[in-house]
Design goal:
165 residues; 3 strands; 3-stranded antiparallel β-sheet; mainly alpha
């Protein structure tokens, strides 16, 4: 066992490596967005609006993968900056339809640059060819996880729970 850092059995655990990398990635993205007065949820909602078009707040939340309460707060923030507009849904006046404005599209382009810079910083030690591999591998893991969402493999765990390492 090495004298520095994590114990050997943890050092190579994929879950630990992914967790530490995710923490680093999250910090890089949050710092980058914070420097331009934005948050990650702003980017997610603007990207969903740009790709899929106007949507109710509920649809927007599903498309961006956000909780309903986070959608309301984020739409309020973006509307305050002139990035999105809300209008009553013509099919149901109790709901709002959110749409992207020109200001919002320009802000999205700015955030695309911030996101790209964070990805570059995260993957700096990798060559251009190597950078595609983590995306491919993690995509496979997440796709598989989505298929077995309820199915859990319990190996060597007396408590009946899979420990997070």
């Amino acid at each position: 066992m090495g004298s520095r850092g994590a114990p050997d059995r943890l050092r190579g655990a994929p879950s630990r490596l992914l967790n530490r990398t995710a923490t680093l990635a999250s910090r890089l993205v949050a710092d980058g967005f914070g420097a331009v007065g934005a948050r990650r949820y702003h980017y997610w909602l603007l990207a969903a609006l740009e790709q899929f078009g106007p949507a109710t707040q509920a649809e927007l939340g599903r498309r961006a993968g956000l909780d309903r309460s986070d959608v309301v707060a984020t739409v309020n923030e973006l509307a305050g900056k002139g990035c999105v507009e809300r209008a009553p849904d013509p099919d149901d006046r109790r709901r709002n339809v959110v749409s992207l404005t020109r200001v919002g599209l320009a802000h999205l382009r700015e955030l695309d640059g911030v996101q790209a810079a964070a990805q570059d910083a995260l993957l700096a030690p990798l060559s251009a060819a190597e950078r595609a591999e983590p995306v491919r591998v993690l995509g496979v893991v997440l796709e598989h996880r989505g298929r077995i969402r309820r199915k859990v493999l319990l190996v060597g765990c007396r408590s009946g729970r899979v420990p997070f390492v």
